[in-house]
Specification:
heterodimer, A: alpha/beta, Hypothetical Protein Ychn, Chain: A, 5 helices, 36% helix, B: alpha/beta
């Protein structure tokens, strides 16, 4: 079965990023497919590579990134939500005349249409948030 | 068409759990995750409301979230089933649609 997962909450805000990550791992462990993970609102904070939590804390951005690389997942940050919160890829930083980008490997920035497409293409769309 | 309702807020903090119970239809399933797991415990002010829903709906709790809050499964309301993340995935497969009550 094909899944799209939507995450509306930042890491360390409450528990939704943790829940979604564990859900995603369980989906893959059962042989299902994850068509896309869409990060919206504060959920885009899951996509920065400049987060440095204490060493004994969960490294959520890194864990999403590693999961994406290992399973070739499509992790998408909403562009409007990302721009507001200062999450940039190289192209977007250049277009905005900024001096740096901060997106972590395994993520890409795109529009809300990607969520709609995920809903259409997948058998199930599961929403996590606060 | 059966729906899985996913609730993640304590019924003692927000109204989303009550809204869920007011909208869920007979034959639907309700999964309590995160802070909603506290509602699985017998003897709270929410217990009767949940038991009423359980007459025609299935109620599940994510066992890890219950344990993380120091609550043991033997204190649960009779009839609530504890599932792990694999069971969570199974519930989303068994139900044609899902609704997250954020």
């Amino acid at each position: 079965m094909k899944f799209t997962i939507m995450i509306n909450e930042g890491p360390y805000q409450h528990q939704s990023s943790d829940s979604a990550l564990q859900f995603a791992r369980a989906v893959l462990a059962q042989g299902h497919e994850i068509f896309r993970v869409f990060f919206y609102h504060d959920g885009v904070y899951n996509g920065t590579r400049l987060s440095v939590p204490p060493a004994d804390d969960r490294q959520l951005q890194k864990e999403w990134s590693e999961l994406a690389i290992e399973h070739n997942l499509d992790l998408v940050l909403c562009i409007a939500a990302a721009q507001r919160r200062g999450i940039m890829d190289a192209d977007e930083a250049k277009r905005q005349g900024l001096d740096a980008d901060n997106i972590i490997e395994g993520f890409r920035i795109s529009g809300l249409g990607q969520l709609i497409e995920g809903g259409i293409q997948s058998d199930r769309t599961i929403v996590f948030g606060d | 068409m059966a729906m899985l309702h996913i609730v993640n807020k304590s019924p003692f903090e927000r109204v989303s759990f009550r809204s869920c119970l007011n909208h869920a239809k007979p034959g639907d399933s309700i999964l309590m995750i995160e802070d909603a797991a506290v509602a699985a415990i017998e003897g709270t002010s929410f217990t009767e409301k949940l038991k009423e829903a359980m007459t025609d709906k299935s109620v599940y709790v994510l066992g890890g979230d219950l344990a993380a809050r120091g609550l043991s499964e033997d204190r649960m309301i009779d009839g609530i089933k504890s599932v792990d993340y694999a069971g969570f995935v199974d519930l989303t497969v068994e139900n044609e649609t899902t609704q997250s009550w954020l």
